[in-house]
Every structure is written in structure tokens, then in C-alpha cells.
Prior knowledge:
4-stranded mixed sheet, 7 helices, extended
Amino acid sequence: MLEMVFIIVVISGLCLLSFRSKGFTPPKTQASDARVYACFERVESLFVNTSEREFFAALRRALPQDYHLHGKVRLEDILRVKRNIKGQAKWALRGRVKSRHVDYLITDKYGAPIAAIELDGSSHNKAAMEADALKDGIFEASGLPLIRVRTRADFAQAAERIFARLESAI
């Protein structure tokens, strides 16, 4: 009987060891050379269309003195996975925001994010709406305002309203 218990314990231990999580190792950066470097080029502008460029100019004109305006900021640079989330779960959550950005970010004079702004065009398909919902949910949960402006808006008025709203909130 004791032998049977011993065998069951040993088999159970081996099973647990074989199914134990091995952890997650992020991918390593590979060495680069001149051929790799030659595959890259500078983009003409951060802004992909006239609306983005015009709204940036309107925001810049309305920008209060102690604020800074940034274009095309990665979500991962302004929002992070909570520190208590570890391993595979952390990497999976980072993957949800890794290649996403906001059109504009307003920061205070110390670089602390104050609000993010998205310029929404009329051609939103299902994938774009899902990406918008993800951004809306993450920003709401983080407490950082995400302001959406339609491309058909009067950009000067929209910029004035945004900064008036932010000034009243601070």
C-alpha cells in the first residue's frame, strides 16, 4: 500500500513538473549591418493627410504657454500595463497597444500627459471601430482623457474648446 502511495506521489510530481509554466522570454534583437540599415528611409511628414496637418496647426496656435503638443505618440509611451501583471499576460497586453498611437498628445511643461486627441475621419470600417473601442476603454480606465474630433469640424473652434475644457479641469 505504501508503495502504491509512493508511486502516485512520484507520478503526480512528474506531471506537475512537465506542465509547469516555463515563463515567457521576449524576442531578442538581432545584429544589424549596412544592408539592414539601407532598408529604412525618413518619412516626409508625421501627418498622413491635410486634415491631420491642419488640425496640428490649429492646436499649436491655441496651445497655452505651459503645454506641449506632440504628434503620433505610441500608446505604449503614455500608457503601461500595470506593474503587478507579470509574464505572458503582460506581454499579451503590451501586444494589444504596441503598434498603436494617438494622433496628438498634450503634455504639461514636465512631460506629464494631460490629454490625448484622435482626429476621426469618415471612413471608419469595423476594424477601425474596434481599435477605437480599445483606445476608448484603455484611456477611460487609466483616467487620461481621450478627446475625439471629427475631420469635418472647424479645427480652430475645436482647438479652443479642447483647451478651455482642459483649463477648467485643472
